[in-house]
Design a protein that fits this description.
The complex is a heterodimer of chains A (about 550) and B (about 350). Chain A has about 550 residues and is mainly α. Chain A has 16 helices and no strands. The N and C termini of chain A lie far apart (about 60 Å). Chain B has ten helices and twelve strands. In chain B, helix 3 (about 50-85) packs antiparallel against helix 4 (about 105-135), helix 6 crosses helix 10 and helix 8 packs across helix 10 (about 340-350). Classes of the chains: A mainly alpha (about 550), B alpha+beta (about 350). Chains A and B meet through helix 3, helix 7, helix 8, helix 9 and helix 10 of A and helix 2, helix 3, helix 4 and strand 9 of B.
Chain lengths: ~550, ~350
């Protein structure tokens, strides 16, 4: 062989035009890309919803403030609630499900990739439609702007008589449209889990995240329908001379409440069950132990799924139902705390006797446990109907449900972001920045939502753009607003961490956490086709079996 | 039935009320709280009941808080303990800890115990629901019909032929010989909710769905609250003021409210402006041609401490400013500005000031 070295020319591939790359993303049917689009979309709306909340908090920082008018404030709480539930939390949850479920069951994509894309774009369009209301119609007072009827839009406030113009119509249509998107994704998840699990993966061997998203999706299929029906009836009232909810013509305001809350209560379980899913994947890995009580966790989740559809009228304890009706819903609501509590105990049981690593995902999970416990306990207080007669419609209730949605669900979502970011991006995030984002957000969360319970106990109702001095609410509202600032900074640090790490992070490798489910057997990020060969599994933790051939799970499960 | 209506032990109540209320507000109001330690920590504190429905709720809430606090202490201790005891140590040997898949006994235990707790809580709750909701009105109860409007409260005493607005007067109720007030709750437009925390839990006013509630306040005074169901732009300033009076004072107030409007020749001009402008389309003044029902009855406007449903004190300046442009006081209020010139404005204000 010759001894000289020849400079081998580096192959130069022409980089593709940006428009081509954009076209790829817009026309994609790949579950991973759609999942990422759902997640980024949700993150943007999370920030927008946060800005709406901050505007409200500034207005409420002192009594009789005039930062915004009552009209603007009422639009803020309507948009904040609608945005956060329908365009931040739901897409976030569907995004992670979309990304992870096929990978975790050893499949190459969802059952219906084009339906997947269609559902995403419907949801995305719904959100844009809601915000188009800001530009929408001109005209009468209250008409040409964002909806201001509250996120649950009680009748008859939403009738043409009390909400002229089109702001309410934008609210109705945006939820109607994105509801179809939710149904499409739910169908996809259910079909994928039923028919595309890899060989050896029976229902009893699926990761808990897969089980929980299966239950969540089944619930979506049941409960979006009453919401859609209610929206259609409202449109008929407003446009076609109907009187479903028009009390001036014999319609029923209470029927709207039933229709809405039959959707609305299971909806919050639809949001929290994926949070449970994240907990059930992350806590075992960072405790270095198998999930304690897998079959009980599945059973409890199915029980929650069914029970959640029997509790809705606890949102209506003050509307004048009979003592028997109130009593029934007290019982069903308290009953649902049993399987929910069992889950908390099982996560504790998983940590017990383990070797807990306090990495950023685990920090968020531990905070989840503490906060979800408290949220559940304030839920029990609200379930006691007479106590609810004081607490409902007050800031105690607002504090309770933010404790669930932010303190539990959002914290679990942050944990999921940090845990799967290396898989999705191929890079490790900065652990230092991660811990900073955790502590900042934790402090802000507790400043805001711990203290928010107290004005409720002292008689402060919700949805008020200002309040009287001398009720004992002033300094509490100030503290609540200060906490919002910490949360905002925490979220900014989080976003910065993601962006910086995406460009500058160390390569993550396939399995940075030494975890046990199938997604960690692919490269980071996974190739388009996920798996070169479809794996065969023998237990709930296929990678544990590979890493511990002398001590595999299938011997003990 | 009577024993169910008996308020709980007063001494324990006030102590618990102080503990809870103090905990609630001490963090925020440190120094002033000590200075004001005699007056209520908040005029709308749900833990400071002075009427039986609020008492029953308070009693139940204490039980629920005790149970939930105990659960919190147990579970939180376990969480804290596991975090401290089972953290990965610095000198860890890298081996995985024993993998425990589950335990049927443990699962059974932490299923059965919560079920028992739920049963106990449910029974306690059901009892209070029945006490409050199924109470029948005694013969001597005062009956009031409350009609919610955007954004004010209409009060009618059908048995006593009184129609008034925004400030509810009721007689004090001696626990030994109760004279409760039973309220029928209706709405003229959207949903509202009647919430005066120290008197009772809130009950909604829903059009087409009449509700009822009752109160039996045992201490005279003024009790505050506000609408607790979002009803539109000025939901925030649909305030509640309940005046609990001695039986004599209440009788006197009723007598005054039943009289037709004072007629004073000095304000003839103002009355003429009032009666020939659109004012009478919405407002009623008994004994005159004004019989509109969309807005508050003004027959005894000057007997009230506030106007605009508690939003501002009832002074001549505030009254004039309100008539001139309601939006300046309560933006989004449904009363339009009548665009009166200054003289008409002054004369109408002067006329209204005679409606004692």
């Amino acid at each position: 062989m010759a001894t000289e070295t020849m400079a081998w020319p580096t192959p130069r591939v022409a980089s593709r035009p940006f428009v081509d790359k954009l076209h790829d993303w817009v026309t994609t049917v790949d579950h991973k890309r759609l999942g990422l689009m759902y997640i980024v979309y949700a993150l943007i709306f999370l920030v927008i919803g946060g800005i709406e909340a901050t505007i409200m908090r500034i207005q409420l920082i002192r009594p009789n403030n005039d930062f915004v008018s009552p009209q603007v404030f009422n639009r803020m709480f309507t948009m904040h609630g609608t945005t956060m539930i329908f365009f931040a939390a739901m897409p976030m949850v569907f995004g992670f499900a979309n990304y992870l479920v096929p990978l975790m069951i050893g499949a190459r994509d969802m059952a219906f990739p084009r339906l997947n894309a269609f559902s995403f774009w419907l949801t995305a369009f719904g959100g844009l439609l809601l915000y188009f209301s800001l530009l929408g119609a001109n005209g009468l007072y209250g008409a040409g702007n964002a909806p201001d009827v509250g996120w649950f839009a009680y009748a008859p406030l939403t009738s043409l008589a009390f909400s002229p113009g089109h702001s309410t119509d934008y609210w109705t249509l945006s939820i109607l449209v994105s509801g179809f998107g939710s149904i499409g994704t739910a169908i996809n998840i259910v079909a994928t889990i039923i028919s595309m699990r890899c060989p050896g993966m029976t229902f009893g061997k699926m990761p808990l995240l897969v089980w929980l998203n299966f239950v969540m999706s089944a619930m979506v299929l049941f409960v979006i329908s009453p919401l859609t029906a209610a929206q259609i009836m409202l449109l008929i009232d407003r446009f076609l001379g109907g009187h479903f909810f028009d009390t001036q013509a014999g319609g029923s305001a209470v029927i709207w409440m039933h229709f809405f809350w039959i959707f609305g209560h299971p909806e919050v379980y639809i949001l929290v069950i994926p949070a449970f899913a994240f907990m059930s994947e992350i806590v075992p890995v960072f405790s270095r132990k198998v999930m304690f009580g897998y079959p009980v966790m599945v059973g409890a989740t199915v029980a929650i799924g069914f029970l959640s559809m029997a509790v809705w009228a606890h949102h209506m304890f003050t509307i004048g139902m009979s003592a028997n009706a109130n009593g029934f819903f007290v019982l069903s609501t308290m009953a649902i705390s049993v399987p929910t509590g069992i889950k908390i105990f099982n996560w504790l049981g998983t940590m017990w006797g383990g070797k807990i690593q306090l990495k950023t995902p685990m920090l968020f999970c531990i905070a989840f446990l503490f906060q979800f416990l408290i949220a559940g306990l304030t839920g029990i207080m609200l379930a006691a109907a007479p106590f609810d007669w004081q607490l409902a419609g007050s800031y105690f209730l607002v504090a309770h449900f933010h404790y669930v949605i932010v303190g539990a669900i959002l914290f679990a979502i942050f944990a999921a972001f940090y845990y799967w970011f290396p898989k999705m991006s191929g890079k490790l995030y900065s652990e230092t920045l991660g811990k900073w984002s955790f502590w900042l957000f934790l402090i802000g969360f507790h400043l805001t939502f711990d203290f928010m319970h107290i004005p409720g106990l002292l008689g402060m109702p919700r949805r008020i753009y200002t309040y009287e001095a001398g009720r004992g609410w002033e300094i509490l509202n100030l503290i609540v607003t200060v906490g919002a600032v910490f949360q905002a900074v925490g979220v900014l640090v989080f976003v910065y961490n993601l962006v910086w790490s995406y460009f500058r992070g160390k390569p993550a490798g396939n399995d940075p956490w030494d975890a046990w489910t199938l997604e960690w057997s692919t490269s980071s990020p996974p190739p388009d086709y996920n798996f070169a060969t479809i794996p065969t599994v023998r237990s709930r933790r296929p990678l544990w079996d590979l890493k511990h051939p002398d001590d595999p799970d299938w011997k003990y499960e | 039935m009577k024993s169910l209506l008996k308020p709980c032990d007063r001494v324990n109540d006030s102590r618990a009320q102080w503990v809870l209320g103090f905990l609630a507000v001490s963090l925020s109001q440190a120094a002033p709280a000590f200075a004001q330690s005699v007056s209520p920590l908040s005029p709308t504190n749900i833990f400071a009941p002075i009427s039986t429905p609020a008492d029953s709720i308070f009693g139940l809430s204490k039980f629920v808080l005790e149970v939930t606090a105990s659960i919190f202490v147990v579970v939180f201790s376990l969480l804290l303990y596991s975090l401290l005891k089972f953290r990965k140590k610095k000198d860890d040997d890298g081996r995985e800890p024993p993998q425990v898949y589950g335990s049927n006994q443990v699962e059974l235990a932490w299923t059965v115990i919560p079920v028992l707790i739920v049963v106990a809580l449910f029974l306690a709750t059901a009892r209070v629901i029945a006490t409050v909701q199924n109470a029948a009105a005694p013969r001597n109860a005062v009956e009031v019909t409350v009609i919610g409007h955007q954004f004010w409260w209409e009060y009618r005493y059908p048995g006593l032929q009184v129609v008034t607005a925004n400030e509810l007067h009721v007689p004090v109720s001696d626990p030994k010989h109760p004279t409760p007030t039973f309220l029928k709750l209706l709405s003229a437009d959207t949903d509202h909710s009647f919430w005066v925390p120290r008197l009772a839990g809130k009950v909604d006013l829903i059009p087409g769905h009449p509700n009822s509630m009752w109160i039996d306040p045992r201490e005279t005074g003024l009790y505050l609250g506000q609408c607790a169901q979002y009803c539109g732009t000025q939901h925030a300033k649909m305030l509640l003021r309940v005046y609990v009076q001695s039986p004599d004072d209440f009788e006197r107030w009723i007598e005054e409210q039943r009289q037709p409007a004072h007629l004073s020749a000095a304000v003839e001009k103002g009355r003429h402006v009032f009666e020939t402008t659109a004012c009478i389309n919405c407002h009623a003044v008994a004994g005159t041609v004004a019989n509109g029902r969309f807005g508050p009855d003004l027959t005894h406007l000057m007997s009230r401490d506030t106007i605009a449903s508690g939003a501002v004190p009832n002074t001549p300046e505030n009254l004039r400013k309100w008539i001139q442009n309601p939006d300046a006081t309560k933006p989004g209020s449904l009363m339009p500005s009548m665009k009166l010139n200054d003289q008409d404005l002054d004369s109408v204000t002067a006329y209204l000031a005679t409606l004692q």
